[in-house]
Every structure is written in structure tokens, then in C-alpha cells.
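Protein: Pentacotripeptide-repeat region of PRORP domain-containing protein
Species: Coffea canephora
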Amino acid sequence: MTTTSPFSLSFSSSLRPSPLPHPRRATLINLASTHSISELVMIRCAAPALASTTRAAAAAPLTSPPKKRHWKQGEYPGLIQDFSISPKNKKTHPIKNIKKKLDKKNNAKAWANTVTEALSDCIDKKQWLPALHVFEMLKEQPFYQPKEGTYMKLLVLLGKCGQPQQARQLFDRMLEEGLQPTSELYTALLSAYCRSNMIDEAFSVLDRMVVLPLCQPDVYTYSILIKACMDGSRFEMVESLYQQMAERLITPNTVTQNIVLSGYGKAGKYEQMEKVLSGMLKSTSCRPDVWTMNIILSLFGNKGQIEMMERWYEKFRDFGIEPETRTFNILIGAYGKKKLYDKMSSVMEYMRKLSFPWTTSTYNNVIEAFADAGDAKHMECTFDQMRTEGMKADTKTFCCLIKGYANAGAFHKVISCVQLAGKLEIPENTSFYNAVIYACAKAEDLMEMDRVFKRMKEKEWQPDSLTFSLMVDAYRKEGMNDKVYDLEQEKQMIKASASEIVITFYRCPC
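Structure follows.
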């Protein structure tokens, strides 16, 4: 059932005044009203050189005038200024075949990108499969020698796209080609495992780094592992990682402490969280920053504890920490989840007043608030305003739109929303497919849900726990126990496959 919000966001677009005429342009216009074009050119050329010409006239020896080059017709790229010729009789020759050259240039725009530019474009758009294909094409060229930076970008891309197995295979091929691994490359591979919650596999990478003299882990490596342990509620491993850092004389920084602070907060371990925060306030090397502020506000905001969030906001302001755009986005998201639309609007107006720009995340939080409430009308108005202001939508935007239409029962708009995402070349990921599966389950269209799941695997996007949970609940609701059994078996096979990969990596003599 669609809930109609009594509140209507009013988005105000700033009006830009017309540009004032350029001073030089105004001067030329005034001069042109009293002088001809040829006179203007003579004034500009003669004025600065008049005095020097007069002084040097007597001393200069009598010499023959310099020879002029005889240009072919249409060859000289410009106008020849010859003041001995009357402006009426002076002929100007256009650039030779200029229209043909311009047409040729315009037609060649589609072919302007080289293969390396195509690779960079795929990485920027987070299209990991085309990026790997282009990279293989590049390696076949005799002039191309892949470097560490290229492998680093690809490993980071595969990690962000949830492809740890592909990252592992790419790392192996890099070693086979004779490129020496570095601490940064190992850390990128470790990060790929951590992003997919494959903590044991990430620890195996750390074990390999420790025994390689030139690939020793640093504070960034340990921070990534600590975050994975915190997200996986494996708090006992965090203490062992801190101990390893102390043995290697690696000091945790503010980023590390913020990760631990966030992990304890999400797990509800408020005593440990307060202990870490107190240590940061007393420390001289890792003082709390705006990220610390954002973590605490996000923690209470996600739990719906609005009063605690507002109280801590004032405390951090008293500490001298100034908010940023992300801080206000967190407040907007928290107010939106509790349907406090007046406060949400007040924060947005406050951002405008302080000249903080509304970002994609700002609009996403508002769209998500209306999507969760099934308010398709205000959700669409926000999305339209977002596009009107030239703000680019991302994957989360369309995930929220799809879920919002599903919650509102407007399943026909889910299809058009998916089509629009394809038209705008919005990067797909596991969350995007989960949103479509959620809409199919909400509409009780299990055949379409099964097709989307197959499409997801064809695109080589790894299903996560939410994917299986949504599908299992949908099949179980219809009493399709055989489908539930198949999904549970497939989930176990994915876990077994991941374990087999890490064993192979651990035995590999790198």
C-alpha cells in the first residue's frame, strides 16, 4: 500500500545571471564604431613599435627588404596582412579543403580511443569483464608490456566488483609472466578477498606476505584485515592483528581506530567503542577527525536513535570538528528512515545556506526514504529533480527506485526502471540484481526471479547471503521445497569453491 507523505520537498534551483560583456570585447566594439578593421590592425601593430622604429631609423644600414615566401594557393594557414593593398582589392584565401578535413575529423571521433584508453574507460565504469578482455588484447601486442600500475587497477576493480576468484587468477598470471609482486599488489589481492568476506583467504595472503622480504605488510594492509574481521564479528582476530602490528613496530593510525570504532558500534559493544574513542581523544598521533564524527552519527542514525545522534553531533562540534557533506547526508538518511521529513528538509536547506552542494548521496538518501515508505510519487519527484540539476545517478539510485516501485506495487515501472538503467549505462553489481530479485519476489513472479538469477550468474556476479535469503523465502512461501534444497546446495558449493582456491594459493610457491 502506498503511503502518502504529508510533506513535500521543495527543491530550489539557483538562477545564474547573464554573463557581463568582457572589457576587452567592449573596447573593441567601441573602437570598431569609429575605425575600420584595417585601421584597427594598423593601430595595434604600429603603436608599440613607433618609438623604437623612429630611434633606429638613422642608425640602421640600408639593406634590401627580406624575401617573402611565395605560398601556394590555399596553403598559408591565415590571412596575409599587406597594407599596401587596398582592403577592397585584398583577397583572402580559405584553408584548403577545410570542410573535408572537419568532416573527416568528426567521423573519426568514434575511432579516436586507443586500446589503452578503452581499458581505462572500462575500469572507470567498473566493467570488469570487458576490462579483462581489453587487457588480454593489449598483452597480445608486441609493443605493450603490462606494468605494476595496470595490474593494481585491475585487482582493485575486481575487488570492488566482488570477483575475488578473478583477482586471484589475474595475480597468478602476473607471476607467470615474470612480474615481481609488491606489497601493494598483495594488499590489493587481500582487499579483494576482504570485500567478499573471505577472511580466511585474506589471512593466507597475509601469511605469504610475512615470509617475503620485499612484500611486508604495512598499516594499510592490517587496517583492511581489521575491517574484514570487524564486519565478520571475529573480534578475537582483531587483538591478534594488533599484537602483530606491535611486534612489527607498526603504529595504528586514525583510519585503523575509526575502523575498530565502527565495528564495535555495529556489534553493540558500546563499552569497547567508548574505550577506543577515549583513547583517540587522549592520543597525539590518532586524534578523532570528521570520519570519527561520521561513524558515530551513522551508528546511532542507523539504529534509529535520533536523540543520541543529535547529542553526539553537538559534542563533536564542541571538540572543534566541523561537519562536511557526508555528515549532512548521514543526518538526512537517519531522518528519512524515521520519516522525519521536516528535519530532513531543514538539513537540506541548511546545506544550501552554507554552500554545501547536494550530491548523489544526498538524493539517494531522500529517494531511499520515500522508497522504504512505498511513496512512489515523491520518490519520482526527487529523481526528476536530481536529473534536472545534472546530478548523475549511480547503482544505488536505481536499487532504491526498483525497491520503491516494488513496495508501492507498481511492478510495471520496475521494468522501465531497469531499462533506463541499461540506457544510462549504470554499472550492475550484486546489489542491483538483489533489488530486481526483491521486486520479483514481491510480485510473486518466481519464473522471472529465476531468470534474473540465471542472468546474474551469466554476468558472473557472485550471489551473496541476501540473494539466497530472498529466493529461499520466496520459494518456501510457495512450498517449493525442491528449489529451496537446490539453492542451499549451490550456496555450499560456492563456499567450498572459495576454500579450494585459498588452499591452492597457500601452497603456491610465489
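Remarks: Confidence is low (pLDDT under 50) at residues 1-63, 75-92, 108-112.
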